[in-house]
C-alpha cells in the first residue's frame, strides 16, 4: 500500500514537529486539532522552525513554501477520510484517544493505518477501541521531533507484519531510525531513561549531590545532551510523572514508584520550562537553581 496522505491529530509541540518532518519527507499532511487557534499555533511553530532552516541555508525559501503548502490545517476529523495513515499525538488520556479512534474508525477508509505516539498507554488497549487492530501500531517520536533521530515502533498483540513494514518505511522516509519494541509499559527508551532519572532523584534525596551537580556529572560523565533534571524540565514534569506512573502501575515494582518531590512539583503546577519553574527556575529567562524550595 502506498502512503501519500498522513493525518496528524494534535498540533502541540510534538504533533507540529512530526507534521513538519512528514511534510519535509514529501507527504501530504493534514494537521488537526480541536480548535483553529491550536492548529494555527502549530503552523506558526513549523513556520518558525523552517525560517531558522532558511536562515542557516539548510533549505531554500522555495523549499520552505513547498513544505508549508503540503500541510493542510484541519479542525474536523472528517478531513481524514482520505488519509492513508493517521497518527494521534494528543495528551495522554485513554478516554480522549479512544473517542478519537472510534470516530476515525467510522470515517477513514478501511485500509488506512492508525498509529499513536503515546509514551505510556498500551498499544493493544488502544487498538482494541477500533475494528482494525491489525492496522494499529505505536509510532513513538522523541522531543524535539525534527531533531531526534529515533522512532520506537510498537507492535500491539494483533498488529500485522505489513503494518509494521509500512510504518518502518514511513520512519525511514522521514530520515528516522526505527527500532521494533514490544508493547510493554514505558516501551524501551522511557523505561530505561526513567530508571536512570529515578536513581538521580534517589541520589538527590540521599544528599549525594545537588541537582546542578548531578546534571553536570551525567552530561560530562556520559556525554548526555541534558542531565536528568534538565531533561524532565524540558519534556515537562506532567509528562515525566505520567511515564513514571505507567511504569509503576505496569510492573507493580516499588523501584518504579514516582518520586514524591516530582509529584509535588507537578501537582503545584511547576511543570518545568513551559511554566517557568520545575527542578530549576527559568523565570529570569535563564536556567537558575531554585531558591524558593529546599530539595
Ligand atoms: N524544534 C526544531 N529544531 C530544534 C528544536 C525544536 N524544538 N530545538 C532545537 N532544535 C534544533 C536547532 O535548531 C539546532 O539545529 P541545527 O543543528 O540545524 O542548527 C539543533 O536542534 C541544536 O539546537 P541548539 O543548538 O539550539 O541547542 P542544543 O545543541 O542544546 O540542542 C536539544 C537542543 C536538541 C534539545 C538537545 O539539548 C538535546 O538533544 N536534548 C535531549 C533531548 C531528549 O533527550 N529528548 C528526548 C526526551 S524523552 C521523549 O521525548 C520521550 C517521551 O515520551 C517523554
CATH architecture of the largest domain: 3-Layer(aba) Sandwich
The residue ranges in which pLDDT falls below 50 over 5 or more consecutive positions are none
The CATH superfamily title of the largest domain:
NAD(P)-binding Rossmann-like Domain
Rg for CA atoms: 20 Å
Percent of residues in beta strands? 5-15%
Widest sheet, order of strands: 3-2-1-4-5-6-7-8
Overall geometry: globular
Number of domains: 2
Please report the total strand number as a whole number: 10
Which ligands accompany this protein?
acetoacetyl-coenzyme A
Order of H and E elements: EHEHHEEHEHEEHEHHHHHEE
Structural class category: alpha/beta
What is the CATH T-level topology of the largest domain?
Rossmann fold
Average pLDDT confidence is: 97
Largest sheet: 8 strands, mixed
Total number of helical segments? 11
Amino- and carboxy-terminal Cα gap: 54 Å
> What helical percentage do the residues reach?
40-55%
Look at the structure and give the CATH class of the largest domain: Alpha Beta
Amino acid at each position: 500500500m502506498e502512503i501519500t496522505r498522513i493525518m496528524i491529530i494534535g498540533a502541540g509541540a510534538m504533533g507540529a514537529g512530526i507534521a513538519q518532518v512528514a511534510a519535509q519527507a514529501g507527504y501530504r499532511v493534514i494537521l488537526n486539532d480541536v480548535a483553529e487557534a491550536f492548529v494555527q499555533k502549530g503552523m506558526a511553530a513549523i513556520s518558525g522552525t523552517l525560517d531558522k532552516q532558511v536562515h542557516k541555508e539548510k533549505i531554500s525559501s522555495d523549499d520552505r513554501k513547498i513544505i508549508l503548502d503540503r500541510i493542510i490545517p484541519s479542525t474536523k476529523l472528517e478531513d481524514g477520510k482520505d488519509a492513508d495513515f493517521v497518527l494521534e499525538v494528543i495528551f495522554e488520556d485513554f478516554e480522549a484517544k479512544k473517542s478519537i479512534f472510534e470516530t476515525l474508525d467510522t470515517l477513514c477508509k478501511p485500509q488506512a493505518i492508525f498509529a499513536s505516539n503515546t509514551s505510556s498507554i498500551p498499544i493493544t488497549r488502544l487498538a482494541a477501541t477500533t475494528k482494525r487492530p491489525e492496522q494499529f501500531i505505536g509510532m513513538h517520536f522523541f522531543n524535539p521531533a525534527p531533531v531526534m533521530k529515533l522512532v520506537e515502533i510498537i507492535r500491539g498483540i494483533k498488529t500485522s507484519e505489513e503494518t509494521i513494514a509500512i510504518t518502518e518505511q514511513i520512519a525511514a522516509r522521514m530520515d528516522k531510525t526505527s527500532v521494533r519494541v514490544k508493547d510493554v509499559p514505558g516501551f524501551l527508551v522511557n523505561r530505561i531513561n526513567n530508571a536512570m532519572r529515578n536513581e538521580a532523584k534517589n541520589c538527590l534525596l540521599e544528599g549525594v549531590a545537588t541537582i546542578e551537580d548531578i546534571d553536570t556529572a551525567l552530561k560530562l560523565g556520559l556525554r548526555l545532551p541534558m542531565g536528568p533534571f534538565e531533561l524532565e524540565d524540558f519534556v515537562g514534569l506532567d509528562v515525566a510523572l505520567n511515564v513514571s506512573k505507567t511504569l509503576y502501575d505496569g510492573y507493580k515494582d516499588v523501584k518504579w514508584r514516582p518520586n514524591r518531590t516530582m509529584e509535588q512539583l507537578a501537582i503545584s503546577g511547576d511543570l518545568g520550562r513551559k511554566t517557568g519553574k520545575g527542578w530549576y527556575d527559568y523565570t529570569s529567562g535563564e536556567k537558575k537553581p531554585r531558591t524558593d524550595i529546599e530539595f
